[in-house]
Write the structure tokens for this entry.
Amino acid sequence: MSFWAYLLHCADRSYYAGHSDNLEQHLHQHQEGLLRGYTYTRRPVELVWAAEFPTRDEAKATELKIKNWSRAKKEALIAGDWERLKKAAIPPSERAQRASTSLGVAPRLRSGIREEGVVAPPPAIVLVRPQLGENIGKAARAMLNFGLTDLRLVAPRDGWPNPDAGPAASGADVVLAQARVFATLAEAVADCTHIYATTVRRRGVTKPVLTPEAAAQAIHGEAGQSALVFGAERSGLESDDVALAHSIVTIPINPDFGSINLAQAVIINAYEWSKHLALAQPPVVDLDPPAPHAEMEDLIGHFVTDLEASGYFFPPDRKKVTLRALRTMLTKTGWSSNDVRMMHGIISILGRPRNRG
């Protein structure tokens, strides 16, 4: 079976990176809006690059690496221009310094991972003896929000698949569809070289204790497959589960109220891991520059003319103080030229005689 990492060019000129074991079907789903994700409101999309891999982990690792690339790097990849791709991988602050040196050693990305070296695959999320299908669905939703899709279930109480998981996942169906079930935790993490047990209790086990942020940094710096292990809703992980892990991850929490649910624990750890990636963010919209002072003076003059005509300045000996307060109010807001023009229009309308007919 083959797996694919791919790049789509969207209608808004952005790029979307993904992976699939059925590229043709996945492309059709993107085109038809059957996947309610990033591409849903950015259709039509066009497949501009794809690469085949023997395992899903390699395809996912490539997808996550490409997601973190700049537009210049993605377009160099699409063009097959390896020299341009190598140059685009160098941070701008280092380009001048490197211009006079050999590029014999592969440049490092901002994450510290070498461009041509081994990239850490995304961690697996392992739920040990989860009780409610609804909570499994919520955990899947938390995972996909931050780019994780490898869900592993150890002896789910109500079996699998569970009809309550789908509605709670709110569209994260790809995570549920790919979820794998194991009889024991040891089987679930058999391919993992780094195992992190999430628990608030040490249980006398002497292991490194990390925050989610520190664990995320460690995962990105490790070449092998990592797993974040979460316990059942009521009791958490048992001592034998924790003993199997290499490190403990503990979320700093209010000592007077240490109640955190399964999905919350998953989303906190997934978010910390995702901070090393370039996930979608709301577009930055620059504010209009402040209007020139002459425009503000015209606006103030317009105000004064209409206010005088309406008898606002009463008693007359308070006019100077009132004008000063008006000027202070209008000049401290940083109005743009558009704001000023709109206010002129409002004043003009308010100053017109009313049609009483």
